[in-house]
Amino acid sequence: MTTLAKPHRKSPSKKSPKEKKLSRLHKPEHMTLEEWQTALRRQFGREQQFQLENLGARKVFSEFRITNPATQSDYRVTIRGNQPGDNYCTCPDFVTNTLGTCKHIEFTLAKLETTSAARATLRAGFQPAYSEIVLKYGAQRQVRFLVGTECPPALAGIAADYFDADRTLRPDAFATFDKFLSQAARYQHDLRCHEDALAFIAEVRDAADRRRRIDAAFPKGIRSPAFGKLLKTDLYDYQRTGALFAARAGRALIGDEMGLGKTIQAIAAAEIMARLLGVGRVLIVCPTSLKHQWEREIEKFSARSAAVVGGLRARRQQLFTSDSFFKITNYDTIHKDLDLIAAWAPDLVILDEAQRIKNWNTRTARSVKKIASPYAIVLTGTPLENRLEELVSIVEFVDRHRLGPTFRFLHSHQIHDQESGRVVGYRDLDSIGKTLEPILIRRQKDQVVKQLPKRLDKNFFVRMTPEQMRHHEDNREIVARIVARWRKLRYLSESDQRRLMIALQNMRMSCNSTYLLDQQTDFGFKADELATLLDELYERPDIKVVIFSQWQRTHELLQRRLTPRGYEHVMFNGSVPGEQRRGLVDRFREDPKCRAFLSTDAGGVGLNLQHASVVVNMDLPWNPAVLEQRIGRVHRLGQSRPVQVVNFISQGTIEESMLGVLQFKKSLFAGVLDGGETEIFLGGSRLSRFMETVDKAAGNIPAPVAEEPAEPAESQSPTRTASEASPNAGDFPAPAAPPNPLETLLNSGLVFLEQLAAAARQPAPSTIQNSGLNPQDAAAHPGLSLVRRDPVSGQSYLHLPVPSPELLDRLLSIATQLLKPPQQHP
What we know:
Elements: E1 2-4, H1 33-45, E2 51-54, E3 63-68, E4 73-78, E5 88-89, H2 92-97, H3 103-112, H4 116-124, E6 131-136, E7 142-146, H5 153-159, H6 177-184, E8 191-193, H7 195-217, H8 237-249, E9 251-254, H9 262-277, E10 282-286, H10 291-301, E11 306-308, H11 313-320, E12 326-330, H12 338-344, E13 348-351, H13 363-368, E14 375-379, H14 388-398, H15 406-413, E15 414-416, E16 423-426, H16 430-436, E17 440-441, E18 455-462, H17 466-489, H18 494-512, H19 515-518, H20 526-537, E19 545-548, H21 552-565, E20 568-572, H22 578-590, E21 594-599, E22 614-617, H23 624-632, E23 643-650, H24 654-662, H25 684-699, H26 741-760, H27 768-771, H28 775-779, E24 787-789, E25 796-798, H29 805-819
Parallel strand pairs: 6-8, 9-14, 9-17, 10-12, 10-13, 11-12, 13-14, 18-23, 19-21, 19-22, 20-21, 22-23
Antiparallel strand pairs: 1-2, 2-3, 3-4, 4-5, 6-7, 15-16, 24-25
């Protein structure tokens, strides 16, 4: 092998007027679009400092390895002449630009054209003795037969039965191409079939065979009996259509509007492929918050096994080698696990929320597009959000040839300002839909409204930050100690009952954000996930959303996300004066720009909000009746559209345990924390039943799995306000050390003092009923009422008077100083 020196870069001062540098942004008037793009590649390629290595015996017509020293990436270039289409490169740009050249080819030609003899050789073109089957890249890929100088005439005659006059393989000859190869083998002639040509022939033949198999198994389409045994549940007609479409296409994009069940369509398509096409390994790539939701959906609808890939590298490697049909991973770790994925070799890749790869230049997008698989299903309700380039990036994963070269696609559809050159609009967008018809299926709710149920419920599982988990686990330890005491004594003092209620409330509040506990930091993902959800929902201009949370502070966080996006909304809670409430409802109903109604459970009673069609529960109430009250504000008489209910549930917390253990069954516990009952203290059998429920809810929380540190550059991260992120932001905290008795006592005192201080700042108890305060907010602060009555015994009890806030603040300061560690002197 011969290694060639790097090309000499000419000094700009020696350039002739004809060599004036071309602009990458503005096309010269005397050039066509293709001429300009070809010239740009020639210009850019000849400026590079690539390394060139000859892999063959010839000096000119040979194969070369091109290496970029900066990135250490390399490609193989085959030189056959100096005209576009003569040569070949393995780079993605050459495969898709339809120009017949690329910067690597132009770099190689520049190096080879240093002598007049080489230039003459290139002009003559390569005329080998052997014949070749090559793939010509253009507006359409074509298989060509290049006749060598020693090709037997009889072989050329046989080729005429398969190739047309310009020696292009005819569409009807793909199925019999191997017969041509068998016939050609009789002539002892050197016939070379290039790998990419054979891969394209196999792709075309597989597509025909795939459609034939599926049509035979589903002869009546969506009415075929085979659907009855496909999954554990029946599919709506449009979902059957989507599953069949994706399976027949092999690589497809399901772009249905949110709430139409893209997940179950993908699972159904995977099942069809497994039964008919031999698919045995399916990789699901989704946002971290949806991994366990996918696992649950698969368990609910399919008999196939699924493994959630997470944890540190060693754990992920173990999971990739485990025996499971589905592997569920997240976008953030794809670039780290490309080698593990390649070794596992998935047959089908499902991308959920695929708008995560809409920016082609991110590491996530580049990494995902390196995953090789014969089949792919892309799921997104928003394939196009802001720019056409986003659609190009997503479609490229499905079929990189579908939209043609990006430069031509954008030139055909973008409208530029003539002075600045910036994009000011788009044109001829209807033609894009026609181009995408073979790979894209998209339905909106109003298109399938007759098939939809009146209500669609969906749970979104959201991960917790380490800071949230610290609050959650600290309070769970308090609950565990109180439950252990109750198990032993079958009795709890009023003080323990109060501490139990506060700890349970804190566990639930921590699931939304640390802001609900300290009003300073904002560690949590729910608000960001809600903003992402609204981005998708608001693709439809007629969609309005009602967002419930028990705590007003949750809505304060949501406002921070909605306002910068320009999403107009109203806030409705118990502190809103009665005379203003009707105006808020009227604005939400009548103003098309006001599309979000943020409400505490004070808005769950007596309001008619059926002009909305989506209900979002940022947190779930204990009482199923309260939950139904929320949904009933929208899902009620007069509602003309299906109602979508979305529940955000923090993974590995008491919220998830509420789903698995309580199953929202009505119990005496229901309503205690939701304002359904204002009494806190319990007794007798009522306390026993209550404690059994707490024991189950707090004692069966799934353990969190340690993940590698998140990478905020390309993933959403919690907002930090008053404090910085932990240096080990991706790790859950280690088990706490045994508590110091004195410290425990003082900490308990601090908690009590803080509660008293908070209560002292509230309105006088006698004014609570007339102030419009949310009953739930009042229940969260025991100091708000002086007299309580036990509903069982009828006994009244008195709360102690609260000292002044100033005195309590001084006591807190003193106690805090006592807890500080002693100063270390050198």
